[in-house]
């Protein structure tokens, strides 16, 4: 199936009846459609059509997803980040401190907290606590004494 055919088939999904979607699911997955709503079926079928035509996730990505899922079972301070992994702009960091929730947004060139820009995560942690903190430790991105 070429990319034009994939696009055509994906575009047709929203106009299909629930019965047609379930039949397509059975054809593509070799299994009965799950009992979810039509929006779910359309999204999953669109992904499946593209996956079959262009390939699925790489082995590296699948392993990373498995590691992340296993990490989710751990408390935040015990979660591991792959070496060299950067915080992506737009990421929201949350921390409860003295009964209040503090939200910090990662920017391309620093961090934003309560409408103010900061050059480092440590500066944000210091603004919140009033004392010097390692920002990665404060937001539980690493443990005290651990290298970033």
The outline comes out as elongated
Number of strands: 4
Mean pLDDT: 87
Largest sheet: 4 strands, antiparallel
Class per helix and strand makeup: alpha+beta
How large is the count of helical segments? Answer: 6
Gyration radius, in Å: 22 Å
Order of helices and strands: HHHHEEEEHH
Strand content: 5-15%
The order of strands across the largest sheet is 1-2-3-4
N-C termini distance: 45 Å
Helix content: 40-55%
- Residue windows where pLDDT falls under 50 for at least 5 positions: none
Key phrases:
single chain; 148 residues; alpha+beta; 4-stranded antiparallel sheet; elongated
Overall description:
By secondary structure, the chain is an alpha+beta fold. Among the domains are: 3-54; 92-138, no CATH class. The chain is built from six helices and four strands. Strands 1-2-3-4 form a four-stranded antiparallel β-sheet, with helices on one face. A hairpin with a 2-residue loop joins strand 1 (92-97) and strand 2 (100-107). The longest helix has 17 residues, at 38-54.
């Amino acid at each position: 199936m070429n990319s034009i055919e994939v696009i055509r088939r994906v575009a047709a999904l929203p106009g299909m009846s629930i019965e047609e979607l379930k039949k397509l699911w059975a054809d593509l997955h070799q299994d009965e459609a799950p009992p979810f709503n039509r929006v779910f079926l359309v999204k999953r079928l669109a992904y499946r059509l593209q996956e079959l035509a262009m390939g699925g996730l790489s082995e590296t990505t699948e392993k990373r997803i498995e590691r992340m899922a296993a990490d989710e079972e751990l408390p935040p301070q015990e979660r591991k980040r792959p070496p060299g992994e950067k915080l992506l702009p737009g990421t929201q960091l949350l921390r409860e401190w003295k009964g209040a929730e503090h939200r910090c947004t990662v920017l391309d060139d620093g961090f934003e907290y309560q409408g103010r820009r900061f050059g480092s995560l440590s500066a944000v942690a210091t603004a919140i606590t009033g004392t010097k903190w390692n920002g990665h430790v404060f937001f539980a991105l690493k443990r005290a004494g651990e290298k970033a």
